[in-house]
Amino acid sequence: MTTQELVTELKSVTYDLMSLLERESSELRSLTSAEYEQFLSEKSALAMQYEQLVVKLRSRGDELRAMSEEEREELRELQAEFQQAARRNMNTLQAAKATNERVVQAIVRAVNDKSKEECTTYTRSATTSKASLGGYGRTLNKSGGAYSVNETL
Fold first, then answer.
1. I need a labelling partner for 71 at 20 to 30 A (CA). Which of 20, 96, 128, 129 fits?
2. What number of H helices and E strands is found in the chain?
3. The dihedral of CA 70, 71, 76, 78: what is its sign?
4. Tens digits of per-residue pLDDT, 90-144?
5. Is the dihedral of CA 63, 64, 65, 66 positive or negative?
6. Are the beta carbons of 146 and 121 closer than 8 angstroms?
7. The 119-122 sheet, strands edge to edge
8. Which of 78, 60, 93 lies closest to 14, judged by CA?
9. Cα distance between residue 56 and residue 108, in whole Å
10. Cα atoms found within 13 Å of the Cα of residue 125, Cβ hemisphere only
11. pLDDT by residue (tens digit) across 124-139?
12. β-pair partners for 120
């Protein structure tokens, strides 16, 4: 494969990867788990292909320098656009992760608070008693035992 063909393929892969990153960022809120797995699979394949092309082109430095200044400038601009798209995508993913973590923590706190108020356990004699609960519904200073929450969250 010639250097020019590698550059053309790199441009194509870069545009595909940028498009995928933009779609992922914009559709992140509405993606199902299966759809997100599909995005990850596509992103991984394109990223691998991109990396392989960059490594091949770096080994052909003399040939790249022999290309016209216009072609090299176009490649530099494309790489800068790609870096911006990757940063935007990373920021979006980090924000989504932080939001998900906050939601999960809020649910855990709500469940723990509710279970502290209304949770009962069964004693060895099959009677119920108020539970003394720790995090995630674990009883404190009690050997195992069943408990139930009397209200659905």
1. 20
2. 4, 3
3. positive
4. 999 999 899 989 998 898 888 877 766 666 666 777 776 665 555 444 555 444 4
5. positive
6. yes
7. 128-130, 119-122, 147-149
8. 78
9. 49
10. 2
11. 777 766 655 554 445 5
12. 130, 148
Closest CA to 88 of 10, 44, 45, 24: 24
- Give the integer Cα–Cα distance in Å for 37 and 111: 29
Token couple for 94: 């980090």
- Please give the single-letter amino acid code of residue 149: V
Q: What's the one-letter identity of residue 46?
A: L
Which one is predicted more confidently, 125 or 87?
87
Q: Which residue has the higher pLDDT, 19 or 129?
A: 19
H-helix or E-strand spanning residue 119: strand 119-122
